[in-house]
Amino acid sequence: MKLRFLIFSAFMAALHLCAFAGSPSATVVPTCHCIGIYVPATSLSADPSTTVTVRYRAPGLADWRKGQPLVYDRRKNRFAGSIVNLEPGTSYTIEAERPGELSESLVFHTSTLHLPPPISEILKRKRFIHVSANGSDLNPGTTERPVLTIQHAVDLGTTGTAVVVHSGIYREQVRLRASRLSNPPIIILGAQGETAVVDGENLRDYAFDLNSVRDFIHGLTLRNTRRSIIRATNCRDLVITSNTLTDPGRHYFDSAIEICPGCADTVIQGNIIKFVNHPYTSGGMGISLRNTEGHHMIFENFIIGNGLVKDGIGGENNFGIKGGPYRDSDIYDNTISGCQDDAIESEGGGINVRIWGNHLSNSLVGLALAPVIVGPTYVWRNVVLNCGPAFKLGEGDHLGHGFLFLYHNTAWSNGTQNGGYAGSGGKGLFEHVTGRNNLISNNGLVFYDRRKSATNSFDYDLLHSTNPKRFLEWGAKGTRLSLAAARAMGFWVHAVAADPLLVAPPNDLSLSPESPAVDSGTILPNFNDNYTGKAPDIGAIEYGKKSITQNH
Question: Roughly how many angstroms between the first and final C-alpha of the chain, as a whole number?
Answer without folding.
Answer: 32
